[in-house]
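Weekly structure sync, notes
Attendees: PL (lead), two postdocs, one rotation student
Agenda item 3: pending single-chain targets
PL asked that the sequence for the first pending target be pasted directly into the notes so everyone works from the same version. It is reproduced below exactly as submitted, 94 residues in total.
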Amino acid sequence: MVVDASLRELLAVAPATPSYAASLATHVPELFVGSRDRLTELISAMATAISANFSTQVRSLYKLSAAIRYHRAPPANSNAWCVAQAIAHWRLGE
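Predicted structure, written out during the meeting:
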């Protein structure tokens, strides 16, 4: 079981298109309570939405490319819960 009170803030991006902002508000609860599998599915779906958000925006040659950054990719977003799970296992002696 995963409980996260800041998942929506973690997945917030700027500048966000109206479509991404609506997707974030619709699909990501203010308080996430669910399984690790559900969290992984949600992060994967939102990573795709983040990529689409930036690919639809026009950027100058001097700005970063529209590719999704590592810290926004699913493996990096999942790391916070991997560490928490490892700490929980260590504390429980598992």
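Discussion points:
- The chain has one domain: 2-92.
- The chain has four helices and two strands.
Action: rotation student to compare against the earlier draft before next sync.
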